[in-house]
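Co-fold these.
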Amino acid sequence: MQITCRINKREFIRDIEPDLLLIDFVRSLGFKSVKRGCDTSNCGLCTVWVDEKPVLSCSVLAARVNHKAVTTLEGLEEEAKEVGWFLATQGAEQCGFCSPGLIMNILAMKAEFKNPTTEDIKQYLAGNLCRCSGYESQLRAIKNYFDLQGVAHENC
Amino acid sequence: MFGLKEYRAVQSLDEAHELLMQSRDNVILGGLLWMKMGRKQYHTGIDLSGLGLNMISETEDSIDIGCMTPLRQMETSPLLHQWFGPLFSDAFKGIVGVQFRNLATLGGSVYSRFGFSDVITALTALDTQIHLYQAGTVSLSEFLNMDQKRDILIKAVIRKQAVKTNFQTRRKSATDFPVLSVAVSLCNGQWKIAVGARPSRAALAKKAADLLSSEPDEEKITATLDSVVNELSFGTDQRAGSDYRKVLAKVLVKRGINAICR
Amino acid sequence: MKIVNQGIEKIDAMALVTGKPVYTDDLAPENCLVVKVLRSPHAFAGIRDIDMAEALKIEGVECILTYRDVPGNRFTMAGQSYPEPSPYDRLILDQMVRYVGDPVAVVAGITEKAVEKALKLIQVSYDILDPVLDPDKALDHKSIIHPEADYHAREDIGNDAKRNLCASGEFLSGDAETEFSRCDVVVDRIYHTKANNQAMMETHRTFSYLDLAGRLVLCTSTQVPFHVRRIAATALNIPQSSVRVIKPRIGGGFGAKQTLVSELFPALVTLKTGKPAKMVFDRAESFTASTSRHEMKIRVRIGADRDGHILAIHMDTLSNTGAYGEHGPTTVGLSGHKTMSLYNMARAFKFTYTVVYTNTLSAGAYRGYGATQGTFALESAVNELADRLSMDPLDLRLKNILKPGDSVAAYYGETIHSCALPACIKKGREMIGWNQKFPFVNISNTKVRAVGAAIAMQGSG
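Predicted complex below.
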């Protein structure tokens, strides 16, 4: 079947299999930041946005993004560098495999929350797993990032 | 890996139902989160996404939630908060993650009748009707207990009432399945106590709820808790034994009642 | 302190956080054959026959390889320097399968769907054997997991495959039994730690191709690229000069990738077909067909006089290496030597160990490499000893631990040149408010909050 969609603001028209998953579709088009971690819709490594909403691309049929806009980390390079710098200075990008999905969801959170509390951050990012760290370095980095946005958050 | 030979974005419920009845290998697509983990090879995947069923709307005496409404939309809905408090946000926040809940649908969650479903537990504590294409309108508990005929779940309809609610759950880790989940509500002096993940799916402890008054004393609460574990069945699975679940049920139901009385 | 105590950005940080294609599967050529493995549903069986006629008819299937298609020289997949202490007990594909998940056939094809279909159509008939599942019953079990004539160990590791014994040994310093007889208190306990999975986010994966000189190139997610080169050459029966290994950025390993796991299957396909090939383990495979932490049962005997001087320690470790011996003979040593060494004031040490084969997933390397299991056992016993002596567990440790300049008896008499353990214990005690909180404080009528302690050492560098 044929679908038309915009990925990172560029239009793609492709013939696809009906059961092709979005993760495999975007990776086949070269957007390799999107990673598969768990096979069980749990780890958040494959996070992309469909019409600005963060979703697990491992669990979306490519057929369902017909006439929709998909964003991967490749489409957010400047924002990724900015968030990524905070992660890097806290050593939160150890093996780096989970970083793209995490950053996609941090940026989605930023769109929803002007002033996330520690609890908000923990809840919003609970579906982004990391095996290297204990999440403390990410939490420090994310708080620092939101601080720099001129946004106050509670201390913890 | 699961497979689909064809994908069809239908234009109407009639078209969807006709396709569904054509073959046992045809299937309605929900959020796909569970389906894609299976190994089943389907023929046609029927997508209801284009039918405007992803909405939460208000009628004179009910709140209607379309089957394709993502759980995240329910959590953040001002309308649902206004009528039912933080019930849905508290019930759903432990379900994997925001990205998962942006995909998981009300219809997929309820139609699958999973025992661990926090969605079913929360809806059970309210006055909820289920609209089906073929079988018409039935109460949620009727739906959960009826023969599983192939049908399309169109929407859930919750009666608008002045209701206080509370949701309690115990999980081994933050985003895991619940070991037990409890939803409690109080409406016009009538309590509802729903206990799910026992590990079988949510059911109301009706006798227990009838023992409670609007402002129950400690003695009544204790009698209620004893009644909850006598009235409902509690089983054993990989997550917990039945005895542990009974202890948990008493603690969580008590917390729920106390939170509403406070 | 210009460097120490400063946060330093890694040189690869920006590439990682902007999602650049730097991992194995990001670099694989698009035209790789998809490689998957048919795995044994039986814990222990001999393969009588493999019928692949129907599977080969599937369009897009390139080849199906079985034990008939692999070189006959045994090897170990443990990432260790030659000669590896782990026994040579493997073939790429064997006629005998030794755990649920052991590979039976390798299928390569143009698409994943074709390969999946072919896997379902391969008919295997097995002679099912009585499996050894309990490590306590493995030694001298009537089922011998490695009866093969060409099984061999390169080093003296106390091995006897006919007894399902992968490795065994004994270490003595002083006269432990005499010292135990002098003790006022002896704690004698058995601690059982289970197998765990390393669970790195990036599962095992490798792609392979032939370069312009006909060399086999393996691009693989590994922690041990140099060992991969040597071991792949041995396993495939080709010279090392014909193998090149590329290790891109890897998505975590934690010891899982200190053993070859996915490498040899695409390598074999590339050698047979001349074509690029790729294998990506799914998550289930990563759990069930890689290597785990060694399950251990550790008996600890530790004795002291009534003043809290530890006189003797005896640790006896039973380690379950599973179906194959990867890292079996070496991890077990750390369970004793890395742990007892901390209590250098003791007069006698005894460490005995047995590493057995069972028909379960092969164990391997995993963070701590055996010290983890031993630390749990010995430190739990030390805490019990403190309780029996009515002593503060930190005081008991301070009284018995090693100090700089010591010749460390349980570590082969090596000298320890620096050690800040007493300072760490004192600082930790202060920071956690130990004196106010030990053993516990009541925080409500149903809850107490408690503190506890353990010490550990590990080598690195």
